[in-house]
Amino acid sequence: MALNANLEKNFSWLAFPGLIRAIVMLQCVVFLVILINKETAGYFMVTPEGIGKGEYWRLISWLFYPFIDPRGYSPVLGTFFMFIILKISFLFSDSLENAWGEIRTSFYIYGTIICQALTLYLSAIGVFPGIFLGNQMFYFALFFAFATLFPHVEFLLFFVLPVKVWIFAAILLATIVFSCLAYPLLFLAYGLAFLPYLVWAIPRLWNWRKYQSQLNTRRVKYQSQHKGSEARTLHRCAVCERTEVSNPELNFRVAENGEEYCLDHLDDDGKPAAP
């Protein structure tokens, strides 16, 4: 909270409310333009030849190229997929701004754009030979941030099967790691492209693991002192009344109302889930 207050006090003029929404809506405009005239797609692509000719505007034009390439789909199918991307992007935008605030979200987007533009430039001049990550990296950076903050949100796989978002993130991460193992230079390229996310996520992961270690230590100590006593427990869910003794695999949190809940009965925003 103190960080947000300092940022808002000193850099509020840099905040761009709804920045993600604005970028995606511009991509929708470009999507329609390319549908009308497919030759316009070449103006937004990053190519080594273009950078070599001094067309440095291509280092930012990629941001407005739609995630769904209209040249690869029929107009109806492409428009449908673009609508899905639009809805998901709006979810990312609202969720990140609610969790971080407008200024931190804007800084995250600015940093991601700069790092990914730098990655594309280094690829174009041969520092990362043969590596062009593409504009999908922008969406991946948003997706990883969303999945880290809200891991239990469910998406419908094939519009039918509900799957928690952290599972999709784990699959995507595994795909990236395997590709890096095949071509180690990709570690540097991905590391630079995702630098803002890594700067934020690694300390968060470290603190989470530290908290889990402390919690497990307390749990083992308490259970050893009160072995066999179900009546005296350290944690008890206010909904299902399961405890760390009856269900050692559960994690518990105190909600805004002061009651303690297991994660099965607590929403990501810290409020009790509906029964």
Q: What brief labels describe this structure?
A:
10 helices, single chain, 57% helix, 4 strands, 275 residues, two-stranded antiparallel ribbon, mainly alpha, two-stranded antiparallel sheet
For this structure, the quaternary state is single chain
Instruction: Quickly count the domains.
Output: 2
Structural class call reads: mainly alpha
The span between the termini is 31 Å
Beta-strand percent range: 5-15%
Catalogue the unreliable spans: none
Helix content: 55-70%
Radius of gyration over C-alpha positions, nearest whole angstrom: 23 Å
Query: Quick one: how many beta strands?
Result: 4
Give the CA-based shape: elongated
Task: Output the helix-strand order.
Answer: HHHHHHHEEHHHEE
How many helices? The count is 10
Main β-sheet: number of strands, strand sense, barrel status?
Answer: 2 strands, antiparallel
Major β-sheet strand ordering: 1-2
Q: Mean pLDDT, nearest integer?
A: 80
Structural features, described:
With 275 residues, this protein is mainly alpha-helical. The protein folds into 2 domains: 195 residues, no CATH class; 47 residues, no CATH class. It has 10 helices and 4 strands, in the order αααααααββαααββ. A two-stranded antiparallel sheet has the order 1-2. A two-stranded antiparallel ribbon has the order 3-4. Helix 2 packs antiparallel against helix 5 and helix 5 packs across helix 7. The two termini are 31 Å apart.
Please render the helix and strand layout as text:
Layout lengths: L1 H10 L7 H18 L11 H5 L5 H4 L13 H26 L1 H23 L11 H14 L4 E4 L3 E4 H18 L2 H9 L1 H31 L26 E3 L5 E3 L13
Antiparallel strand pairs: 1-2, 3-4
Helix pairs in contact: 2-5, 5-6, 5-7, 6-7, 6-9, 8-9
